[in-house]
Amino acid sequence: MNAEALVFVPGNMLDASLFEFQRRHLEPALPVFTVPALRGSTVAEIASDILSSAPSRFALAGLSMGGIVALEIWRQASERISHMALFSTTPLPDTPRRRAIRDVQVARVRDGGLHEVLAESIDPHYLARRSRRDGVLADRVLQMGIGLGADAFIEQANALRSRPDSRDDLPSVQCPALVLCGTEDTVCPVDGHIDMWRALADADLAVLADCGHLPTIERPRAVLHHLQDLLERRT
């Protein structure tokens, strides 16, 4: 592979197990590091924290909020990034409507409603219809969030609501890149990924059928295949 190491960045209220399948298959070929969870009151703080313990040069893959953080990592240390994978994410800032929803959710979580808030987000928004049938994946995602706890939810919500607009930064991403999403992603729809792909200098686009917002666990082998192709590309 043409990457020295790979760093996975999970999404909002998701943990390192989100990338377990891909890590297990890639690790024999290169060092793989997975951020356990996103901690920091701003996207800039989260990115800085990740950079403080990341290898000197690495490929970067972020999903959802992890993609938002990945773009901030690029802004802070582009010279350290060899390849960039953006899964199920957006370069857009939070809308006023979404900020208002976050404020309500944070208030509910402070009052002990973490389980209910997470459950409402996961079903039906996170997973494709096929992935929701037996409830196994939905419960797996819920347990990730429960394990991280209320403080992490509040911290991540505040970081998301104040995140910057990254659209103007996309053309500056000159390394080989991959934009990947699911056809049934209602959180970050396909059209937004096509816009990102067009704005990036050297990117491939993958749109996975029967897949929602969490392709690394809904379509793990397909994600692995596209990620391997990215890591084989020369910088």
Instruction: Tell me the distance between the termini.
Output: 11 Å
Beta-strand share of residues: 5-15%
How much helix, percentage-wise, in residues?
40-55%
Number of helices: 11
Structural summary, described in words:
With 235 residues, this protein is an alpha/beta fold. It has two domains: 6-93 and 165-232, 3-Layer(aba) Sandwich (Rossmann fold); 96-157, no CATH class. It has eleven helices and six strands. It has helices at residues 20-26, 43-53, 65-77, 96-110, 114-122, 129-132, 136-148, 150-161, 190-199, 215-218, 220-232; strands at 6-9, 32-34, 58-63, 81-87, 177-182, 203-208. Strands 2-1-3-4-5-6 form a six-stranded parallel sheet, sandwiched between helices. Strand 3, helix 3 and strand 4 form a beta-alpha-beta unit. Helix 1 crosses helix 11, helix 2 (43-53) packs across helix 3 (65-77) and helix 4 packs antiparallel against helix 8 (150-161). The chain is globular and about 50 Å long. The chain starts with 5 loop residues before the first strand and ends with a helix. The mean pLDDT is 96.
